[in-house]
Design brief:
Elements: H1 7-10, E1 27-28, H2 40-48, H3 63-73, E2 80-83, H4 85-97, E3 104-107, H5 113-120, E4 125-128, E5 148-151, H6 163-171, E6 178-181, H7 193-198, E7 202-207, E8 220-223, H8 226-236, H9 246-257, H10 259-282, E9 285-287, E10 294-299, H11 304-312, E11 316-317, E12 329-333, H12 337-350
Parallel strand pairs: 1-11, 3-4, 5-6, 6-7
Antiparallel strand pairs: 2-8, 7-8, 9-10, 10-12
Helix pairs in contact: 2-9, 3-9, 4-5, 4-8, 10-12
Bound molecules: pyridoxal-5'-phosphate.
Pyridoxal-5'-phosphate is lined by residues 32, 85-87, 111, 151, 155, 181, 183, 207, 209, 215, 220.
Length: 351
């Protein structure tokens, strides 16, 4: 099977994406996708882009998109870098900022793609173990030899750090790059973008897959100092200068410009999360305090795999991670209120 693999390819343990099955009437709560459609401006912008200009390369500098992101976040376009999903931006960040001889601090429980990139790029990880309640021992993130990468809010727990804690991490790693992955910040979390203006070592990475209902067109971006953005562009232009196609650029720009719509749907998701959490707690579940568009929950005495299997019989898909520390938990994405009521009804049968 691996006959033609390079040594590099043969040594990898690739990421396993959440299942995307084609089943009718499936309630899909396993990939933290947004249950609401993209803004209609996004669809129109993509449709307008379907013309003869497709024969021409897109704008390698992603100028209009970067300008829209800059305007929305109160930074300058030169503080923005856009890429093909935040997974790609993260991958380029590994190459741009981390070195093999300097261990990078990460949580032991977080987004598992970080470990995949670390292995691919031969980066040693200095794991910081979360406490028993899954909160972070913040001071252990200080004085990293190689940099810091954390998701805030964290995945799959949904727990976030305060601004003061994030600032302390930035200050106490002043000669190393500190990356905050804000994939889930738009559901009631607090962004660290203001820190990028105060500290030139802080990089924010965001995705448009969750909060902007655009997992299907693959757009992510980073915000940071000109020096950090320049390193990312150096890596990008050493791999593929045209990571975002014309359709993705048009759609993502229109999405950023329709802030009003997205704030409305994401507030709805945050409200549904609180409603769903309350009902789970009433049923006897332990639910971690989430600021994301998912909850991480367990029912004492029942293995997470069993909860997943039970929900599957009701055509409801959730995510389970087969790791000792979190094997009792399932991660349930927040869908519409109807989706969550169906999930609650199915869970009642299990309780
Ligand atoms: C913490 C975190 N970062 C990044 C991503 C990747 O997002 P994208 O769809 O932009 O590649 C995910 C996706 O699940 C995530 O959970």
């Amino acid at each position: 099977m691996k006959k033609y693999f390079s040594k590099l390819a043969a040594a990898q343990t690739p990421y396993i994406p959440g299942e995307q099955p084609k089943i009718d009437n499936l309630i899909k709560l396993n990939s933290n996708e947004n249950p609401y459609p993209p803004s209609h401006h996004v669809i129109e912008a993509i449709q307008n882009e379907l013309n003869d200009a497709l024969r021409l390369y897109p704008d390698a500098k992603t100028t209009k998109l970067n300008e829209a992101i800059a305007r929305k976040n109160g930074v300058l376009p030169e503080n923005v870098f856009s890429g093909n999903g935040s997974d790609e931006v993260l991958s380029m960040a590994f190459m741009a900022f981390f070195d093999s001889d300097r261990p990078v601090k990460m949580y032991n429980i977080s987004y598992s793609f970080y470990d995949v990139y670390a292995k691919l790029y031969n980066i040693v990880v200095d794991y910081v173990n979360l406490k028993e309640d899954f909160t972070a021992p913040v001071e252990q993130l200080y004085n990293s030899k190689g940099g810091v990468l954390i998701a805030n809010p964290n995945a799959p727990t949904g727990i976030e750090l305060t601004q003061d804690e994030l600032e302390a991490i930035a200050i106490n790693n002043k000669d190393r790059v500190v990356i905050f992955d804000e994939a889930y910040v738009n559901f009631g979390g607090t962004t660290a973008v203001p820190l990028t203006k105060k500290y030139d070592n802080v990089l924010i990475i965001r995705t448009m897959s969750k909060a902007n209902s655009l997992a299907g067109i693959r757009v992510g971006y980073a915000i940071g100092s000109v020096g950090l953005i320049s390193a990312l562009n150096t890596i990008k232009n050493s791999i593929n200068s045209f990571t975002l196609d014309r359709l993705a650029l048009a759609g993502a720009t229109a999405a950023i410009e329709d802030n009003e719509y997205y704030e409305k749907i994401n507030q709805q998701i945050a409200d549904t999360r609180e409603y769903f959490t309350g009902k789970l707690v009433e049923m006897g579940f332990t639910v971690l305090p989430s600021k994301a568009n998912f909850v991480f929950a367990k029912l004492n005495g029942i293995d997470g795999q069993r909860i997943l299997d039970h929900l599957k019989t009701y055509n409801i898909l959730v995510r389970y991670f087969n790791r000792e520390e979190i094997k009792d938990y399932v991660r349930i994405s927040i869908g519409t209120k109807e989706d969550m009521d169906a999930c609650l009804d199915a869970l009642k049968q299990l309780v």
